[in-house]
């Protein structure tokens, strides 16, 4: 069932990662993701894995929570690996029609699979250790220059992104309930070919859309009752300030990225 999906949830804690300013956390997340793409060798990717694992340990999150967050994207990792399996040069190890598997293709598949897993894990660390409210404030603060220069409504943009992220677990739970209700009425959703399974999802999608629109309407009413009128003139109950730990985290991340770049230059390996 889908009830184990944890993407978009926040897990309270008192770890070093939880205490980092959300603005700095977003910047560091972006830098770490860029660093994953800079890796062109297994050694560099292994360093990225160790550094990411260190972040996970510092967050003091339960390992089961991390595994639940990774589980939903296993199918995406698998598809990515399969697609890259046939994207390689050299003497084919196995060939079927125009599709050929080479040693280079196998390396590409393994490398890309680990890369996707690292990207997802880094993204999970951001959402697991940051509340939706602080995430909204951080995005709005980082995009403030766009409002000053181009007069864009960055508050609405940040609010929309955070609400969408916040309601992922809610929608997943709703899908789980609807599927359980349909199965209790005799609906068969687990057998048959792909086309039959897609058709079986129609009785799930329609109630899901109705429920989503109802939740959106209720949320709009709730925000209106609390006199929400957008970001213009709004103040923050908890002002964000960069502390020493934020600068320390930035320094460590910059040194880490510099090490990956030096390693890439020295090794001069594609994969």
Give a brief description:
With 271 residues, the protein is mainly α. The protein has helices at residues 16-19, 22-38, 42-59, 63-70, 74-85, 103-128, 132-142, 144-150, 154-166, 168-184, 194-200, 202-225, 244-267, and strands at 92-96, 99-102.
Could you explain how this protein is built, in words?
Helix content is 69%, strand content 3%. It has a two-stranded antiparallel ribbon with strand order 1-2. It is mainly alpha-helical and 271 residues long. Strand 1 and strand 2 (99-102) form a beta hairpin.
Report the radius of gyration as a whole number of Å: 22 Å
Report the mean per-residue pLDDT as an integer: 83
Report strand order across the widest sheet: 1-2
Strand proportion? under 5%
Largest sheet: 2 strands, antiparallel
Gap between N and C termini: 37 Å
Indicate the low-confidence ranges by residue numbers: none
State the oligomer.
single chain
Query: SS-based structural class?
Result: mainly alpha
Percent helix among the residues? 55-70%
Topology as H/E string? HHHHHEEHHHHHHHH
Global shape: flat
* Secondary structure: number of strands: 2
Number of helices: 13
SSE map:
Layout: H1 16-19, H2 22-38, H3 42-59, H4 63-70, H5 74-85, E1 92-96, E2 99-102, H6 103-128, H7 132-142, H8 144-150, H9 154-166, H10 168-184, H11 194-200, H12 202-225, H13 244-267
Antiparallel strand pairs: 1-2
Helix pairs in contact: 2-6, 2-7, 2-13, 3-6, 3-13, 5-6, 7-9, 10-12
């Amino acid at each position: 069932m889908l009830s184990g999906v944890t993407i978009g949830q926040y897990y309270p804690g008192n770890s070093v990662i939880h205490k980092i300013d959300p603005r700095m956390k977003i910047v560091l997340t972006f830098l770490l993701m860029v660093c994953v793409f800079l890796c062109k060798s297994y050694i560099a990717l292994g360093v990225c894995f160790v550094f990411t694992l260190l972040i996970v340990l510092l967050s003091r999150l339960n390992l089961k929570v991390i595994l639940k967050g990774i589980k939903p994207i296993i199918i995406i990792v698998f598809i990515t690996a399969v697609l890259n399996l046939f994207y390689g040069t050299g003497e084919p190890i196995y060939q079927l029609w125009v599709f050929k598997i080479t040693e280079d293709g196998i390396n590409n598949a393994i490398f890309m699979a680990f890369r996707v897993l690292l990207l997802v894990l880094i993204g999970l660390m951001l959402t697991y250790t940051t509340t939706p409210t602080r995430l909204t404030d951080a995005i709005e603060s980082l995009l403030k220059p766009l409002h000053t220069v181009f007069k864009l409504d960055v508050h609405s943009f940040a609010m929309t992104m955070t609400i969408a992220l916040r309601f992922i677990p809610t929608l997943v739970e709703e899908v789980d309930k609807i599927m359980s209700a349909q199965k209790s009425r005799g609906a068969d959703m687990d057998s048959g070919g792909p086309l039959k399974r897609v058709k079986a999802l129609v009785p799930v999608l329609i109630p899901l859309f109705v429920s989503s629109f109802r939740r959106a309407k209720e949320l709009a009413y709730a925000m209106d009752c609390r006199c929400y009128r957008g970001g213009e003139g709004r103040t923050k109950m908890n002002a964000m300030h960069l502390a020493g730990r934020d600068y320390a985290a930035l320094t460590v991340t910059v040194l880490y990225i510099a090490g990956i770049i030096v390693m890439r230059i020295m090794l001069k390996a594609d994969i």
